[in-house]
Amino acid sequence: MTASLYRLVYYSRNHVSGDAAEFATHVDDILAKSRQNNRRDEITGALLFNAGCFAQVLEGPLEKIEATFERIQQDDRHGDVSLLALNSIAARSFPNWAMGFVGTSNGDAERFAGISASSGFDISRLSGDQIHTLLRDLTIEEEAVA
């Protein structure tokens, strides 16, 4: 029997300090550990960074994504962690991504133009559905390029 799937969407404020190189190192560390843990826990999803905020979609068994979200809330690199959505889903939007990452390249910035115009790309002003759709569309584009 297959466990029910859930999707959790949250955003948080970046509390990682340092210059661009130090920040990149921290993000690389976050991604490496997340990918390792997510493969183990059967979690898929994507992470977005822009304008001092993180937004993330996690998909998988409810108890696993709740435990992951609890670790994120306890992580000093995240501040003002806000749950935007937690829903049962029929299928994953990120089946091939233990943790996709978008948001730092110039190309990504261009793709955010529509959302940026309506929200100033303040992630806290986006709904869970908007963040999910944005990340899903960006990962589909990444898969097409790869």
TrEMBL record:
Annotated BLUF domain residues: 5-100
Q: Name one Pfam family in it.
A: BLUF
| Chain segments annotated as coiled-coil in the UniProt record | none
Q: What InterPro entries does the record tag this protein with?
A: Acylphosphatase-like_dom_sf (IPR036046), BLUF_domain (IPR007024)
Quote the SMART domains the UniProt record gives: BLUF (SM01034)
Q: Which domain of life is it from?
A: Bacteria
- What this protein is called in its record is BLUF domain-containing protein
Q: Which organism is it from?
A: Jiella mangrovi
